[in-house]
Design goal:
15% strand, 50% helix, four-stranded antiparallel β-sheet
């Protein structure tokens, strides 16, 4: 069997996406509590995500969602990193702005460690893509659309999508 450019590069992107998920999983987490959710989306699910991003762009008058949807559409796959909404229960913390975890939960707020740990995990993951010279971009917009579609499961409150690309020109640069 002879493989040609797209086939070879797309297979490599899938492998790197998997390595990114491993890097995120092994990133340090507050109290050692793992609330991370990872997913790799392509094909029909990716098309559904692109449609949702365009819907959000029109519905909420946010042009950057449409621009980002175009980037995701051109990417063979997109990797998601998310955090389940759960407080760590650290005594005397208050980083969330509330007196304690109970007050925070009653207000429907998020534990500061959920977003902090997610940021560390995403940073670790995109470093893997960069180490393999894979073009990527962290997108809040893709994460928001995935949350609206329920693609990442129950209890997930924060998500970022990272589309991957291996082309002659980085599609995530000079996006306008």
């Amino acid at each position: 069997m002879i493989r040609v450019n797209d086939e070879i590069e797309n297979a490599a992107l899938q492998q790197i996406a998997q390595k990114m998920c491993v890097a995120a999983r092994t990133a340090p987490k507050g109290r050692g509590k793992d609330l991370l959710v990872t997913a790799i989306i392509d094909g029909e699910e990716k098309a559904e995500l692109v449609a949702q991003m365009r819907l959000i762009a029109a519905r909420d008058e946010l042009a950057f969602f449409a621009r980002d949807a175009g980037n995701v559409e051109l990417s063979p796959c997109i990797v998601f990193f998310a955090s389940r909404k759960e407080p760590l229960g650290l005594p005397h913390c208050g980083f969330c702005g509330f007196e304690d975890c109970g007050s925070m939960q009653a207000a429907g707020a998020l534990c500061s460690f959920n977003s902090g740990d997610l940021g560390i995990a995403v940073g670790s993951a995109v470093s893997v893509a960069t180490d393999h010279r894979v073009d990527n971009r962290i997108m809040y917009s893709a994460g928001k659309a995935a949350l609206e579609l329920g693609l990442l499961g129950d209890g997930v409150a924060i998500a970022f999508g990272v589309p991957l690309s291996a082309t002659g020109k980085n599609p995530f640069f000079d996006r306008g």
